[in-house]
Amino acid sequence: MSLYSFGLEPLSCHAWNKDRTQIAVSPNNSVVIIYEKKGNEWAKIHELTEHSGRITGIDWAPESNRIVTCASDRNAYVWTLKDKVWKPTLVLVRINRAATCVKWSPLENKFALGSGARLISVCYFEKENDWWLSKHIKKSIRSTVMCLDWHPNNILLAAGSSDFHCRIFSAYIKEIEDKPGPTAWGAKMPFGEMLLETRDCGGWVHSVSFSPSGDHLAWVAHNSSISVADATQGKEVTQLTTDRLPLVSVLYVSPTEMVAAGHDCCPFQFSYKGPGSLKFVKKLDIPKQTSRGSMSAMQHFRNLDKKATDDESNELGCLHQNSITQLCVVSGKKTSVDKYSSVGLDGAMVLWDFKH
Amino acid sequence: MEALQAVLKNPPINTKNQKVKERAEGLVLKVLSAFKSSDVENGIQSLDKNGVDLLMKYIYKGFETPSDNSSAVLLQWHEKALSAGGVGCILRVLTARKTV
Question: How far apart are CA A151 and CA A156, in angstroms?
């Protein structure tokens, strides 16, 4: 477990390169900064400044080494590294509201972009004209798309939105890929087909995550709950309401375990083993050992008088000092993640080890 | 105790009729005020998770229109319900689209 602070600005999103020696972060403004690991420190090596609005999503494709960024200026850029400089290419997303999240597909031949225009833009590269084109998924989305995740088969896309629903769509683009075989979620998958729409989740859906096999879909909602939909059991949904602050990001770390984090500033582990058995396992943070120096009696009573407490420290008892905004897998295959990272509003990035 | 269970069963969430909701709220308030301070804890223990969420919704609804003694009673219930339901319970009151 190690913490690194990238300054005082909140980090809205982050992405790792293939060998995890570089990290791209955005300190809540219109710039993406790429840091490289030098020993125990992170040194700034690149600054990507094409966007004019706040950056809302970054994703780094490990194999093809391309970065896609999206921002509230309704644009998305795909960056490629040429002669040690990152060059942007504009993507025609054709949205008239801010983009909220972006994710490369598992095979990296396309990416999906969620936006406040109540649609998902699936973008792919067209070789003849040498530009990125997009296709829109609008069916039944009634509000901003807040989060996306791809199914391992490169075709299905899960989207959580602020209209309180979580949906799975097919993002099959016939120009660039072959017809997919049937999955547990459905057999017919033309582009834009909706394979799952959950009923009212009780709150904005902040984050979705497919399990490693793609048969389960987990999401967290703003009403402090975490839910899982199980395709193998007739798309049955199991919901667990927690008595903590809402979770904002969820990640599957093994076929049954998932880690979720949010406004409580530390990650929690949950376990899903079948319909009806979604359980909270444990809190994954070790509280700091507060070093209480000896206080004089005078100090003690002065504190009691001024602050009604004799506790000097005003720090939270966990590594992050403010809400966690995003979790990301760092090492290990999707079925057995060893390390994951979290960034938060306190400007810090923490690397966590996961013990199975 | 049974009155608490009964009044929390079948809450008027889906109706748009304001009168029905006000009558239900009045009833709940009467039951909550009728409890002795020492019994509040037992009352909360007898409810399941959904019951605690629902109770919290009524407590906040009651806060909106304070009458002579209601706030004190409601605050007592709020404190005990909070220790049972946690902040998540209050979150669910705030995010719920269908109110009691």
Answer: 5
